[in-house]
Amino acid sequence: MYLLAIETTGAYASVALLQAEKTARILSVIHGNDRFSHLQNLTPQIDQILKDNQLQIGDVDVIAVSHGPGSFTGIRIGVSTARALGQILGTPCVAVSSLEALALRALQTEEDMLQTEAAPQSGSTDGSSKLLLCPALDARRKQVYGAAYEIEDGRLSCRIPERSILMVDFLQKLEEIADQYDRILFLGDGIDTCGELIRQWALERREAGTGKAADGNEPAPQVLYAPEEIRYQDAAAVALRGLQLWNDGKACDYIELQPEYLRMAEAEKKLKERKS
């Protein structure tokens, strides 16, 4: 089985091709080089990845697409492309949360995750320590699209459901469960825009002596930023999450494939305000 994955919710479009037989493996990934040029780049990327693997578009069995949250325009381009391919080819689609896929990027090696930029506090770096993953995508004005997950045996377990939220409010929700973990790993471009808020939260927890780690040691937890090579959205992670959802029977027809924005666009808000 061949699964084509599309990621357009971030600044750079990417596509990946996964082959699943007895085991699953990513055959190749193509990344765009131009920021927010998804409309121009996506179709050529799909053509190129098929050509590189000596396949035709009709050889694709499943189309996985990151349907949001993220860039509104990017979401529409990715979902529209997946819907068009699904309709033309009669191929089933899988809608993948960009936050879930981003969290799965942390399944890189433990060494990669420990070589991160830490907020100003120390903590356990034992490979057996309990880890919480917090993908956070910039939603402007110090807001993020955020969620929190654990990963057990390669599967996601949601601790904070995805939502559009001010980063300070997200950190308050995180405060309720933070002491259950030894490490908290932030991913996504929310780090780029709200990193100082995260650092301040981590520093205040340390100075206040708040909580203990899951292993009983203080201070807790160690707050980390994912390194740039796994920090942002990527089609390979969409492919892996798409395969999980496919195996769980969560594929859909192209008509059922819909964007997930988590909030209204600014233009929609203004239109609604004028009508009210």
What does this structure look like?
This protein has 276 residues and is of the alpha/beta class. The protein has two domains: 2-98 and 233-275, ATPase, nucleotide binding domain (Nucleotidyltransferase, domain 5), CATH 3.30.420; 116-226, 2-Layer Sandwich (Nucleotidyltransferase, domain 5), CATH 3.30.420. The chain contains nine helices and eleven strands. The chain has helices at 38-52, 72-89, 98-104, 110-114, 167-175, 190-208, 228-231, 235-247, 266-275; strands at 2-7, 14-20, 24-31, 62-68, 93-97, 117-118, 131-138, 143-152, 155-166, 183-187, 222-225. The strands form two sheets. The protein has a six-stranded mixed beta sheet with strand order 6-11-10-7-8-9, with helices on both faces. Strands 3-2-1-4-5 form a five-stranded mixed beta sheet, sandwiched between helices. Helix 1 crosses helix 2 (72-89) and helix 3 packs across helix 8. It starts with a strand and ends with a helix. Residues 109-115, 120-127 and 266-273 have low confidence and may be disordered.
Structural class, by secondary structure, is: alpha/beta
The CA-CA distance between the termini, in Å, is 50 Å
Poorly predicted ranges:
109-115, 120-127, 266-273
Report the CATH architecture of the largest domain: 2-Layer Sandwich
Query: How many helical elements?
Result: 9
